[in-house]
Design a protein that fits this description.
Elements lengths: L1 H17 L5 E4 L6 E5 L14 E7 L4 E8 L6 E7 L24 E6 L16 E5 L4 E9 L7 E10 L3 E9 L4 E3 L15 E10 L3 E8 L9 E7 L11 E5 L14 E9 L5 E7 L7 E8 L3 E3 L14 H12 L15 H13 L3
Parallel strand pairs: 1-3
Antiparallel strand pairs: 2-9, 3-8, 4-7, 4-9, 5-6, 5-8, 10-18, 11-12, 12-17, 12-19, 13-16, 13-18, 14-15, 14-17
Length: about 375
Protein backbone atom coordinates (compact mmCIF):
# COMPACT_ATOMS: atom_id res chain seq x y z
CA UNK A 1 0.00 0.00 0.00
CA UNK A 2 2.83 2.40 0.85
CA UNK A 3 4.53 1.80 -2.52
CA UNK A 4 1.20 2.37 -4.30
CA UNK A 5 0.71 5.67 -2.42
CA UNK A 6 4.18 6.82 -3.40
CA UNK A 7 3.43 5.98 -7.03
CA UNK A 8 0.22 7.99 -6.90
CA UNK A 9 2.11 10.91 -5.40
CA UNK A 10 4.70 10.83 -8.19
CA UNK A 11 1.97 10.64 -10.81
CA UNK A 12 0.24 13.55 -9.13
CA UNK A 13 3.37 15.68 -9.26
CA UNK A 14 3.87 14.82 -12.93
CA UNK A 15 0.31 15.80 -13.71
CA UNK A 16 0.71 19.06 -11.84
CA UNK A 17 3.90 19.83 -13.75
CA UNK A 18 2.30 19.08 -17.10
CA UNK A 19 -0.65 21.29 -16.19
CA UNK A 20 1.50 24.36 -15.51
CA UNK A 21 0.62 27.34 -17.64
CA UNK A 22 2.36 30.35 -19.14
CA UNK A 23 2.67 33.27 -16.73
CA UNK A 24 3.65 36.59 -18.31
CA UNK A 25 6.08 38.37 -15.99
CA UNK A 26 5.54 41.83 -17.43
CA UNK A 27 4.97 44.13 -20.37
CA UNK A 28 8.09 45.36 -22.16
CA UNK A 29 7.38 49.06 -22.19
CA UNK A 30 9.76 50.48 -24.84
CA UNK A 31 12.94 51.72 -23.25
CA UNK A 32 12.04 50.47 -19.76
CA UNK A 33 14.38 47.63 -18.70
CA UNK A 34 13.00 44.69 -16.72
CA UNK A 35 15.25 42.61 -14.45
CA UNK A 36 14.90 38.86 -14.26
CA UNK A 37 16.74 35.77 -13.08
CA UNK A 38 16.74 32.00 -13.23
CA UNK A 39 17.22 29.30 -10.61
CA UNK A 40 20.82 29.23 -9.42
CA UNK A 41 23.04 26.70 -11.18
CA UNK A 42 20.58 26.11 -14.05
CA UNK A 43 22.70 24.98 -17.01
CA UNK A 44 20.25 23.75 -19.67
CA UNK A 45 17.13 25.88 -19.44
CA UNK A 46 16.78 26.28 -23.20
CA UNK A 47 14.93 22.94 -23.15
CA UNK A 48 13.09 23.45 -19.86
CA UNK A 49 9.94 25.56 -20.45
CA UNK A 50 9.16 25.55 -16.75
CA UNK A 51 12.18 27.85 -16.30
CA UNK A 52 11.45 30.22 -19.20
CA UNK A 53 10.53 33.85 -18.56
CA UNK A 54 7.68 35.24 -20.69
CA UNK A 55 7.11 38.92 -21.54
CA UNK A 56 4.73 40.70 -23.90
CA UNK A 57 4.94 43.84 -26.00
CA UNK A 58 2.30 45.61 -28.08
CA UNK A 59 3.52 46.60 -31.56
CA UNK A 60 1.98 48.24 -34.63
CA UNK A 61 2.53 46.66 -38.04
CA UNK A 62 5.61 47.93 -39.85
CA UNK A 63 7.48 49.00 -36.73
CA UNK A 64 10.98 47.76 -35.99
CA UNK A 65 11.38 46.08 -32.59
CA UNK A 66 14.71 45.57 -30.93
CA UNK A 67 15.09 43.07 -28.07
CA UNK A 68 18.27 43.21 -26.01
CA UNK A 69 19.08 40.86 -23.15
CA UNK A 70 22.12 41.73 -21.02
CA UNK A 71 23.41 39.39 -18.34
CA UNK A 72 24.03 41.01 -14.96
CA UNK A 73 25.99 38.06 -13.58
CA UNK A 74 28.94 36.37 -15.25
CA UNK A 75 27.56 32.84 -15.05
CA UNK A 76 24.48 33.35 -17.22
CA UNK A 77 24.39 32.57 -20.95
CA UNK A 78 21.00 33.97 -22.05
CA UNK A 79 19.01 33.13 -25.19
CA UNK A 80 15.79 34.78 -26.39
CA UNK A 81 13.08 34.39 -29.01
CA UNK A 82 10.11 36.50 -30.13
CA UNK A 83 6.73 35.23 -31.32
CA UNK A 84 3.50 36.79 -32.56
CA UNK A 85 0.61 35.99 -30.25
CA UNK A 86 -0.49 36.22 -26.62
CA UNK A 87 -0.17 32.89 -24.80
CA UNK A 88 -0.93 33.97 -21.21
CA UNK A 89 -2.57 31.05 -19.37
CA UNK A 90 -1.80 28.47 -22.07
CA UNK A 91 -0.28 25.11 -21.01
CA UNK A 92 3.50 25.15 -21.09
CA UNK A 93 5.23 23.06 -23.76
CA UNK A 94 6.50 19.69 -22.51
CA UNK A 95 9.93 19.44 -20.92
CA UNK A 96 12.60 18.93 -23.59
CA UNK A 97 11.07 21.50 -25.97
CA UNK A 98 13.74 23.79 -27.41
CA UNK A 99 12.96 27.49 -27.05
CA UNK A 100 12.84 28.08 -30.84
CA UNK A 101 10.24 25.28 -31.15
CA UNK A 102 7.86 26.78 -28.57
CA UNK A 103 5.32 27.67 -31.28
CA UNK A 104 4.85 23.96 -31.99
CA UNK A 105 2.95 23.72 -28.69
CA UNK A 106 1.61 27.26 -28.17
CA UNK A 107 -0.80 29.29 -30.37
CA UNK A 108 1.83 31.77 -31.61
CA UNK A 109 4.12 32.26 -34.63
CA UNK A 110 7.91 32.37 -34.46
CA UNK A 111 9.31 35.77 -35.53
CA UNK A 112 13.00 36.08 -34.61
CA UNK A 113 15.60 35.03 -32.06
CA UNK A 114 18.89 36.13 -30.53
CA UNK A 115 21.74 34.33 -28.86
CA UNK A 116 25.41 35.33 -29.05
CA UNK A 117 24.90 38.68 -30.82
CA UNK A 118 26.80 40.84 -28.31
CA UNK A 119 29.80 40.14 -26.08
CA UNK A 120 28.80 39.39 -22.47
CA UNK A 121 27.49 42.59 -20.90
CA UNK A 122 29.44 41.94 -17.71
CA UNK A 123 32.67 41.45 -19.61
CA UNK A 124 32.89 37.79 -18.61
CA UNK A 125 30.90 34.60 -18.81
CA UNK A 126 30.05 31.92 -21.35
CA UNK A 127 29.36 32.93 -24.98
CA UNK A 128 27.45 36.17 -25.71
CA UNK A 129 24.17 38.04 -25.09
CA UNK A 130 21.07 38.33 -27.33
CA UNK A 131 20.49 41.54 -29.30
CA UNK A 132 18.11 41.15 -32.25
CA UNK A 133 15.42 42.97 -34.21
CA UNK A 134 12.29 42.18 -36.17
CA UNK A 135 9.79 44.15 -38.21
CA UNK A 136 6.22 43.61 -37.01
CA UNK A 137 4.21 42.00 -39.80
CA UNK A 138 0.93 42.59 -37.97
CA UNK A 139 -0.42 44.80 -35.21
CA UNK A 140 -0.93 43.02 -31.92
CA UNK A 141 0.72 41.29 -28.99
CA UNK A 142 4.18 39.77 -29.34
CA UNK A 143 5.57 37.35 -26.78
CA UNK A 144 9.26 37.41 -25.88
CA UNK A 145 10.84 34.43 -24.13
CA UNK A 146 14.13 34.65 -22.25
CA UNK A 147 15.89 31.45 -21.19
CA UNK A 148 19.17 30.23 -19.76
CA UNK A 149 21.29 28.37 -22.30
CA UNK A 150 24.63 26.69 -21.48
CA UNK A 151 25.21 28.76 -18.36
CA UNK A 152 27.93 28.22 -15.80
CA UNK A 153 26.96 27.33 -12.22
CA UNK A 154 26.15 30.38 -10.14
CA UNK A 155 23.73 33.30 -9.88
CA UNK A 156 21.88 33.88 -13.17
CA UNK A 157 20.52 37.42 -13.56
CA UNK A 158 19.70 39.55 -16.60
CA UNK A 159 18.00 42.71 -17.86
CA UNK A 160 15.72 42.66 -20.92
CA UNK A 161 14.93 45.85 -22.84
CA UNK A 162 12.69 46.47 -25.83
CA UNK A 163 12.72 49.50 -28.14
CA UNK A 164 10.33 50.32 -30.97
CA UNK A 165 11.13 52.52 -33.93
CA UNK A 166 10.97 52.87 -37.67
CA UNK A 167 12.70 50.36 -39.93
CA UNK A 168 16.34 51.32 -40.59
CA UNK A 169 17.37 52.74 -43.95
CA UNK A 170 19.63 50.81 -46.31
CA UNK A 171 22.78 52.95 -46.41
CA UNK A 172 25.13 50.81 -48.50
CA UNK A 173 24.90 47.89 -50.92
CA UNK A 174 27.84 45.97 -52.31
CA UNK A 175 28.10 42.88 -54.55
CA UNK A 176 31.13 40.61 -54.31
CA UNK A 177 32.39 37.09 -54.91
CA UNK A 178 34.73 35.10 -52.66
CA UNK A 179 35.40 32.33 -55.19
CA UNK A 180 38.96 33.41 -55.96
CA UNK A 181 39.60 35.34 -52.76
CA UNK A 182 42.54 35.06 -50.42
CA UNK A 183 42.22 32.37 -47.76
CA UNK A 184 42.47 32.29 -43.98
CA UNK A 185 41.48 30.34 -40.87
CA UNK A 186 38.14 31.89 -40.05
CA UNK A 187 36.94 32.47 -36.48
CA UNK A 188 34.20 30.30 -35.02
CA UNK A 189 33.36 32.91 -32.39
CA UNK A 190 34.74 36.04 -30.79
CA UNK A 191 37.57 34.17 -29.08
CA UNK A 192 38.22 30.97 -31.05
CA UNK A 193 39.24 29.82 -34.53
CA UNK A 194 37.50 27.09 -36.47
CA UNK A 195 39.18 23.69 -36.35
CA UNK A 196 37.88 22.69 -39.80
CA UNK A 197 37.43 25.96 -41.75
CA UNK A 198 41.17 26.56 -41.80
CA UNK A 199 41.64 27.65 -45.42
CA UNK A 200 38.48 29.51 -46.45
CA UNK A 201 38.27 32.14 -49.24
CA UNK A 202 37.24 35.61 -48.10
CA UNK A 203 36.70 39.18 -49.23
CA UNK A 204 37.04 42.25 -47.01
CA UNK A 205 35.20 45.57 -47.28
CA UNK A 206 36.24 48.54 -45.15
CA UNK A 207 33.55 51.08 -44.27
CA UNK A 208 33.09 54.24 -42.22
CA UNK A 209 29.90 55.59 -40.63
CA UNK A 210 28.99 59.28 -40.54
CA UNK A 211 27.61 59.25 -36.98
CA UNK A 212 27.80 57.02 -33.92
CA UNK A 213 24.95 54.54 -33.79
CA UNK A 214 23.76 50.98 -34.29
CA UNK A 215 24.08 49.36 -37.70
CA UNK A 216 22.92 46.10 -39.25
CA UNK A 217 25.04 44.18 -41.76
CA UNK A 218 23.23 41.65 -43.96
CA UNK A 219 24.56 39.18 -46.53
CA UNK A 220 22.49 37.34 -49.13
CA UNK A 221 24.28 34.39 -50.76
CA UNK A 222 21.27 33.33 -52.90
CA UNK A 223 20.79 36.27 -55.27
CA UNK A 224 22.67 34.87 -58.25
CA UNK A 225 21.05 31.48 -58.87
CA UNK A 226 23.26 29.83 -56.26
CA UNK A 227 22.85 29.06 -52.58
CA UNK A 228 26.04 28.58 -50.67
CA UNK A 229 26.84 28.62 -46.96
CA UNK A 230 28.37 31.97 -46.10
CA UNK A 231 29.84 33.27 -42.85
CA UNK A 232 29.87 36.96 -41.93
CA UNK A 233 32.39 38.78 -39.72
CA UNK A 234 32.64 42.43 -38.63
CA UNK A 235 35.85 44.00 -37.32
CA UNK A 236 36.57 47.33 -35.63
CA UNK A 237 39.82 49.15 -36.32
CA UNK A 238 41.03 46.96 -39.18
CA UNK A 239 41.36 43.34 -40.24
CA UNK A 240 44.44 41.12 -40.36
CA UNK A 241 43.82 37.67 -41.91
CA UNK A 242 46.89 36.38 -40.05
CA UNK A 243 45.36 37.43 -36.72
CA UNK A 244 41.65 36.96 -37.46
CA UNK A 245 40.47 37.34 -33.85
CA UNK A 246 41.95 40.81 -33.39
CA UNK A 247 39.25 43.47 -33.55
CA UNK A 248 36.40 41.00 -34.17
CA UNK A 249 33.15 42.44 -32.74
CA UNK A 250 30.36 40.45 -34.44
CA UNK A 251 29.83 37.29 -36.47
CA UNK A 252 27.04 35.14 -37.88
CA UNK A 253 26.66 31.92 -39.84
CA UNK A 254 22.95 31.34 -40.56
CA UNK A 255 20.70 34.40 -40.11
CA UNK A 256 17.39 33.89 -38.26
CA UNK A 257 15.88 37.38 -38.41
CA UNK A 258 13.34 38.84 -40.83
CA UNK A 259 15.36 41.54 -42.61
CA UNK A 260 16.41 39.20 -45.45
CA UNK A 261 14.12 37.28 -47.85
CA UNK A 262 14.96 34.01 -46.12
CA UNK A 263 16.74 32.43 -43.15
CA UNK A 264 19.29 29.71 -42.56
CA UNK A 265 21.93 28.57 -45.04
CA UNK A 266 22.45 31.20 -47.73
CA UNK A 267 21.79 34.14 -45.42
CA UNK A 268 23.99 35.80 -42.79
CA UNK A 269 23.44 38.92 -40.73
CA UNK A 270 24.49 40.79 -37.61
CA UNK A 271 22.06 43.29 -36.14
CA UNK A 272 22.53 46.35 -33.94
CA UNK A 273 26.32 46.54 -34.13
CA UNK A 274 27.56 49.65 -32.32
CA UNK A 275 29.80 51.68 -34.64
CA UNK A 276 31.53 55.00 -34.07
CA UNK A 277 32.38 57.68 -36.58
CA UNK A 278 36.06 58.15 -37.28
CA UNK A 279 36.89 54.46 -36.89
CA UNK A 280 37.29 51.95 -39.71
CA UNK A 281 35.08 48.86 -39.72
CA UNK A 282 35.78 45.86 -41.94
CA UNK A 283 33.07 43.52 -43.20
CA UNK A 284 34.53 40.12 -44.06
CA UNK A 285 32.49 37.71 -46.16
CA UNK A 286 33.74 34.15 -46.03
CA UNK A 287 32.34 30.61 -45.97
CA UNK A 288 31.33 28.05 -43.38
CA UNK A 289 33.72 25.40 -44.69
CA UNK A 290 36.86 25.43 -46.83
CA UNK A 291 34.84 24.62 -49.97
CA UNK A 292 32.14 27.25 -49.35
CA UNK A 293 32.51 30.26 -51.65
CA UNK A 294 30.53 32.24 -54.18
CA UNK A 295 28.80 35.53 -55.00
CA UNK A 296 27.03 37.57 -52.36
CA UNK A 297 25.31 40.89 -51.76
CA UNK A 298 26.04 42.99 -48.68
CA UNK A 299 23.66 45.57 -47.22
CA UNK A 300 24.45 47.94 -44.37
CA UNK A 301 21.43 49.47 -42.62
CA UNK A 302 21.45 52.26 -40.07
CA UNK A 303 20.49 55.79 -39.10
CA UNK A 304 23.43 57.61 -40.69
CA UNK A 305 25.36 57.52 -43.94
CA UNK A 306 27.87 54.73 -44.56
CA UNK A 307 30.67 54.93 -47.10
CA UNK A 308 33.29 52.54 -48.39
CA UNK A 309 36.75 53.50 -47.24
CA UNK A 310 38.85 53.62 -50.38
CA UNK A 311 42.63 53.58 -50.28
CA UNK A 312 44.24 51.92 -53.26
CA UNK A 313 47.49 51.38 -51.36
CA UNK A 314 45.70 48.93 -49.05
CA UNK A 315 44.95 46.81 -52.10
CA UNK A 316 44.10 43.60 -50.21
CA UNK A 317 41.75 45.51 -47.86
CA UNK A 318 43.17 44.14 -44.64
CA UNK A 319 43.69 47.55 -43.02
CA UNK A 320 47.47 47.33 -43.19
CA UNK A 321 50.11 48.30 -45.77
CA UNK A 322 52.40 45.33 -46.39
CA UNK A 323 54.22 43.53 -49.19
CA UNK A 324 51.01 41.59 -49.75
CA UNK A 325 49.39 44.77 -51.10
CA UNK A 326 52.10 44.93 -53.77
CA UNK A 327 51.58 41.26 -54.64
CA UNK A 328 47.81 41.69 -54.80
CA UNK A 329 48.19 44.74 -57.03
CA UNK A 330 50.65 42.95 -59.30
CA UNK A 331 48.27 39.98 -59.70
CA UNK A 332 45.35 42.31 -60.46
CA UNK A 333 47.39 44.21 -63.04
CA UNK A 334 48.48 40.96 -64.74
CA UNK A 335 44.86 39.76 -64.84
CA UNK A 336 43.65 43.05 -66.38
CA UNK A 337 41.54 43.84 -63.33
CA UNK A 338 40.10 47.39 -63.68
CA UNK A 339 40.90 47.99 -60.00
CA UNK A 340 44.56 48.19 -61.00
CA UNK A 341 43.90 51.37 -63.02
CA UNK A 342 45.39 53.57 -60.32
CA UNK A 343 45.54 56.75 -62.41
CA UNK A 344 41.97 56.27 -63.72
CA UNK A 345 42.92 56.82 -67.38
CA UNK A 346 41.06 53.75 -68.64
CA UNK A 347 44.18 51.70 -69.46
CA UNK A 348 46.77 49.69 -67.56
CA UNK A 349 50.30 51.02 -68.10
CA UNK A 350 53.58 51.55 -66.28
CA UNK A 351 52.11 54.80 -64.97
CA UNK A 352 49.62 52.79 -62.90
CA UNK A 353 52.55 51.05 -61.20
CA UNK A 354 54.12 54.43 -60.43
CA UNK A 355 50.75 55.72 -59.15
CA UNK A 356 50.37 52.73 -56.82
CA UNK A 357 53.97 53.11 -55.58
CA UNK A 358 53.36 56.75 -54.71
CA UNK A 359 50.06 55.93 -52.99
CA UNK A 360 51.75 53.25 -50.90
CA UNK A 361 54.54 55.64 -49.88
CA UNK A 362 51.93 58.25 -48.86
CA UNK A 363 49.97 55.73 -46.77
CA UNK A 364 46.26 55.62 -46.00
CA UNK A 365 44.88 58.37 -43.80
Amino acid sequence: MERFAVTLAILGMAAAASAQTVVVLGDLTPGDPIAGDFPADLTGGQRSPITWDFYTIEVQAGKLVRIEVDRTTDALDPVSAAFFGDVEGQPLPPEGTFILDAASFLPMVFVASGDDNDPPATGAGPFGDPNYTFTAAATGTYTVIVASFVSDPGELGYIVTATIGDAPTVRLERIGDTTFGDRFNRPSGLTSLSTFATDVPFEALEIEVAEDGFFTVLSDQTNFGLRWDGYLLVYEGGFDPFSPLDGLIAFNDDYRGDLLPGTGIGYSGVENVAMRSGLPYVIVQTGFDNDDAGPYQIQVLGDSDVRIFTCIADFDGDGQLTIFDFLAYQNAFAAGDPRADCDDDGSLTIFDFLCFQNAFAAGCE
